[in-house]
Amino acid sequence: MRIALFATCLGDTLFPEAVKSTAVLLARLGHDVVFPPQQTCCGQMHVNTGYQREPVPLVRNFAAQFGDPAIEAVVVPSGSCAGSVRHQHEIVAERYGDAALRAGVAAVRTKTYELSEFLVDVLDLTDVGAYFPHRVTYHPTCHSLRMLRVGEKPLRLLRAVEGIDLVELPEADACCGFGGTFAVKNAETSTAMLRDKMDHITGTGAAVCTAGDSSCLMHIGGGLSRIKSGTRTLHLAQILAATRTAPHVLTEAAR
């Protein structure tokens, strides 16, 4: 299958290992992974902040970069960015675009997937041959849970990982408090939500907290580092890409 990888802004600038791991995983599963070099931001941050007209050029570029009929699927290591492409792009195109943009968006949105739903729903896989001998807890991010409704797909993938000690996260579906500009505009509320999330994570005794969004992991990881919890954050793709022959070596977390 010919798969185009959408890196996302955060993946490109701050968390490239999550993007690389997505490519490694998909290639290991036997697929042809391509990376359209002119891809840019999907425009999610503009729409979420109320600027729906401004991302029209970004939405148009996304449709152009990933609209090649030879690309059978677009895979995104981010529930929030996949949700933006699948839902927000249509809103922007309908309100501020032209017929060509609406057609381009319609063609791309139907073949765009968050990583876990692509593996489970499209490839019909749960065991991807991963090996990760550590105690892990999973945080379901808001957009993947509520917009994409990926449900237990990430957990099904994690349960099939060889060697993993997967522990349930109490009140898992509660928001971590990030929400992009929400964390800036409502810092006190965001911090209180993060504190609750960290209490639940550290209570599991997990060495790693994983999720499908680097943005949430950035927020959670920053908090866990500041309290010297000893718990690391790691993108789901990095766990699934690890194998016995190419294991992921955990770095020492702050204590």
UniProtKB/TrEMBL annotation:
<dbReference type="GO" id="GO:0005829">
    <property type="term" value="C:cytosol"/>
</dbReference>
<dbReference type="InterPro" id="IPR004017">
    <property type="entry name" value="Cys_rich_dom"/>
</dbReference>
<dbReference type="GO" id="GO:0016491">
    <property type="term" value="F:oxidoreductase activity"/>
</dbReference>
<feature type="domain" description="Cysteine-rich">
    <location>
        <begin position="3"/>
        <end position="85"/>
    </location>
</feature>
<dbReference type="Pfam" id="PF02754">
    <property type="entry name" value="CCG"/>
</dbReference>
<feature type="domain" description="Cysteine-rich">
    <location>
        <begin position="136"/>
        <end position="220"/>
    </location>
</feature>
<protein>
    <submittedName>
        <fullName>Glycolate oxidase</fullName>
    </submittedName>
</protein>
